[in-house]
TrEMBL record:
It comes from the Bacteria. InterPro entries: SusD-like_N, SusD_RagB_dom, TPR-like_helical_dom_sf. It is found in: Cell outer membrane. The keyword Ribonucleoprotein does not apply. Keywords: Cell outer membrane, Membrane, Signal. GO terms for cellular component: cell outer membrane. Belongs to the SusD family. Residues 329-633 form the RagB/SusD domain. This is SusD-like protein.
Length: 633
């Protein structure tokens, strides 16, 4: 029998011990399968508990972060390849759902280890780390289900076909959050400090990693309750999961305090630091953080130099390549809105900065800007390496001039402004997570992928602080959080004095701006907009790209084919903007002016409160009618 979309007979201990986990240690990579081992003879030694715990990493972090779209079709993204787009609001109710099935499958494995630990006859301290690891992953899987569906059935034991959880109702989102935070407390107490984890085991979880995740989830829970409330819960009787709260569920204030406290403890631990190699890598410093491998950058930095990633998937060229189409597809392309959200070097947005050079020339808007722009977005007619043997001329030959590469290729980047074909890489070209490695073909990339990194901890601290302050935050708190991120981006610090002359700039708005810029492409934008209760106001506008009317783009010739213009207005059926329009609920975001290329019209973008939670798959409701569908689905 199937339910909660997993096959109980199929998902068992054999899967745990026959799979392997990837960390920095080759011993784990080279584990031999033990297909003959069964539950009856397993979980007898600490080594067996460790092998079972190691499986969770590969099972749960077995896909590339961002491979679920990297914020595609959001207000910040110039990509609209998926049809229907998520932002269209007309996603049909699916019969099945991969998030539902995979996370419930993985919950069984975590629960099994926790149960077997209670029966273990040896010294409990010998398996404490592995039990804490299981609690972390139980929290993680419930968290992924919460983000997708709101309240879901909580599963804290391994089930069989007669288990009542298979046929019971959903728990509320508040009950799920309470369970997640409780599991993370166990993980925090039982996991080792990051400072005690040796180089050969980097990638394994630490107590600071669990605190970082708890800070994220506490912030999520607090803001969702503050700004959305019970609007997506349903009554729990005829529709939805309801709004029941455990007796000692924390208040919004307490959740904000918990987020700030956990973030602060991670910040004070000394376990992590921001990647900052501007001296060696220049204004593309951040690009190399997300493509870091041996031989992947001109300074010869390696993964050992990265102390920013906290929770991440570890890949290896020999033992575990990414095997997904990342570099070739180049999915992380910015929209006009994101391009204008990037700050100028003086710390001000484009509409107020005295050093912003406008849009008249193809390169104007790239001057005096945030290094996150220059790291992740190609500047027109500037030379960039391709990757592998011959993609876009082939990968980087550091220390060699482009003209001396021996390929005969013209490495200058020319914007694609001829037509919207493919729905990706039009207008601007984003290259976050796109390698320039000479020896990496598409699908062979092997850089690590982050699920949570230290920059986010700093952002969480700042956001929780400004929420607790009723919109106010001190310069001192900004300096230990947001301004560390701005400094490594070559942006002047955010201060109360900096924004005070501008009535439409607020501290909460600027901190949210920083989060949008810093985490773009890391699949958090939709969840952020929903927890802030502003998704409809941010998403349902024309999606625009480059300013073309009245700019150099109108008449510029393609330097690689001088008989052709770079821009073909007849290729874009939606034309360009004809008037200035606000595109954000936050008035501090620059308006879109006339002359911007329209890539998708607001008529195609109909996100609503209904879309704050996805529908329960119809197969699950058929198997268990107690699973009430979410409101409006």
């Amino acid at each position: 029998m199937k339910n909660i979309n997993f096959n109980i007979k199929r998902i068992g201990l054999t899967a745990v011990i026959s799979a392997f986990m990837l960390t920095g240690c080759s011993d784990y990579l080279d584990q031999e399968p033990q297909d003959s081992v069964t539950e009856a003879v397993y979980f007898k030694t600490p080594e067996q508990f460790e092998a079972a715990a190691n499986f969770f990493y590969r099972a749960t972090f077995g896909y590339v972060a961002g491979s679920d779209g990297g914020d595609e079709s959001s207000d910040l993204s110039g990509n609209i390849t998926e049809q229907p787009t998520y932002v269209s609001g007309n996603k049909p109710v699916p019969t099945s759902d991969g998030i539902w099935s995979s996370n419930y499958n993985q919950l069984r494995e975590a629960n099994q280890l926790i149960e077997k630990a209670a029966e273990y006859e040896g010294d409990q301290s010998d398996i404490e780390t592995f039990v804490a690891t299981a609690h972390f992953f139980r929290a993680w899987n419930h968290y992924k289900l919460l983000l997708r569906f709101g309240g879901v059935p909580i599963v804290t034991r391994s089930l069989d076909v007669s288990s009542e959880e298979l046929y019971g109702p959903r728990n509320s989102r508040y009950e799920v959050i309470y369970q997640i935070l409780s599991d993370l407390d166990v993980a925090i107490d039982g996991l080792p400090s990051e400072n005690s984890i040796g180089d050969t085991e980097k990638g394994k979880l630490s107590s600071e990693a669990a605190k970082s995740l708890k800070a994220r989830i506490s912030l999520y829970a607090a803001t969702y309750e503050k700004y959305v409330g019970t609007a997506t819960d349903g009554d729990g009787t005829t529709v939805g999961a309801g709004s029941a709260k455990p007796a000692d569920y924390p208040s919004v204030q307490e959740l904000f305090e918990d987020a700030k406290q956990n973030a602060s403890e991670v910040m004070n631990s000394g376990a992590y630091e921001l990647w900052d190699h501007r001296a060696e890598l220049g204004d593309r410093n951040l690009y190399y953080l997300f493509t870091l491998e041996d031989g992947s950058n001109p300074a010869g930095l390696t993964k050992a130099d990265n102390r920013e990633f906290i929770i991440y998937t570890v890949y290896d060229y020999t033992l575990r390549q990414i095997r997904q189409n990342i570099s070739h597809s180049k999915p992380y392309t910015p929209s006009r809105k994101l391009m204008d959200m990037y700050l100028c070097e003086d710390g001000l947005p484009v509409q107020y900065s005295s050093v912003f050079e406008g849009y008249d020339k193809m390169n104007s808007e790239f001057q005096n800007r945030d290094n996150r722009l220059t790291s992740f977005v190609y500047e027109p007619i500037v030379q960039y390496w391709g990757h592998g043997a011959n993609v876009d001329g082939g990968g980087a030959q550091y220390g060699v001039d482009f003209e001396d590469a021996g390929t005969g290729f013209d490495y200058r980047y020319v914007p694609q402004l001829l037509n919207p074909s493919g729905g990706r890489g039009v207008g601007y070209q984003g290259v976050k997570f796109v390698t320039e490695h000479k020896l990496r073909e598409t699908r062979e990339e092997s850089f690590n992928f982050p699920y949570l990194r230290y920059a986010e901890v700093l952002l969480t601290y700042a956001e929780a602080t400004v929420e607790l302050g009723g919109g106010a935050i001190s310069d001192a708190d900004l300096d230990i959080s947001i301004n560390k991120i701005r400094e490594r981006s070559n942006v002047a610090p955010l201060t109360n004095a900096l924004i005070s002359p501008y009535s439409d700039l607020t501290m909460l708005g600027e901190i949210r701006r920083e989060r949008a810029i810093e985490l773009f492409g890391e699949s958090q934008r939709f969840d952020d907009l929903k927890r802030w209760g502003i998704a409809e106001g941010e998403l349902n506008h024309d999606l625009t790209l480059n300013y073309v009317d009245g700019t150099e783009f109108e008449t510029a010739l393609n330097p690689k084919n001088p008989t052709d213009l770079i821009y073909n207005p007849s290729g874009f059926s939606y034309g360009t903007t004809s008037s200035e329009k606000s595109i954000s609920t936050y008035s501090g975001i620059a308006n879109v002016k006339p002359g911007a290329l329209i890539f998708d019209i607001k008529g195609n973008r109909n996100f609503s409160i209904k879309n704050y939670v996805d529908p329960i798959p119809s197969d699950q409701i058929r198997l268990n009618p107690e699973l009430l569908q979410n409101p409006l689905w």
